Amino acid sequence: MERLQDIARATTMAMQVTKAMGEGDAAEMNEAMLRLAQERLFAILVDEKPDQSPWEIMPKITRAVTELSKTAVMQAKMREDMKAKMLARVDAMSRGAGNDKKIKKALQKVREEIYGL
Questions:
Q1: Band of residue 20 on the pLDDT scale cut at 50, 70, 90
Q2: 68 vs 34: CA distance, rounded Å
Q3: How far is 111 from 91, CA to CA, in rounded Å?
Q4: What is the pLDDT of residue 42?
Q5: What is the pLDDT of residue 35?
Q6: Domain of 94?
Q7: How many helices (H) and strands (E) does the chain have?
Q8: How many domains in the chain?
Q9: Alpha-carbon distance 50 to 56, whole Å?
């Protein structure tokens, strides 16, 4: 019964994170969930009176930390790839604008203010 309550609590927390993110992108949501999971793992590691011996749960924690690390690296790579694609598109549009200074200025503003490039 306690396990079901833990799952319900985790589900509620995930829904709250989702609501707080609003229309934010999935990478931001995943980052928030990753941080939440890391915080929970840390709490387990420093628990002075764990339900199980640390030696029993350490393999699971180690695996979870490894998976979380892989996820963080994949997310960083995806962000960098997306940033490169956006930069390439803005550059292509700028080249397509020829000598039109108004369009080039607008694209530079898009690059800096919207994409942060």
A1: low
A2: 7
A3: 9
A4: 77
A5: 77
A6: 2-114
A7: 4, 0
A8: 1
A9: 11
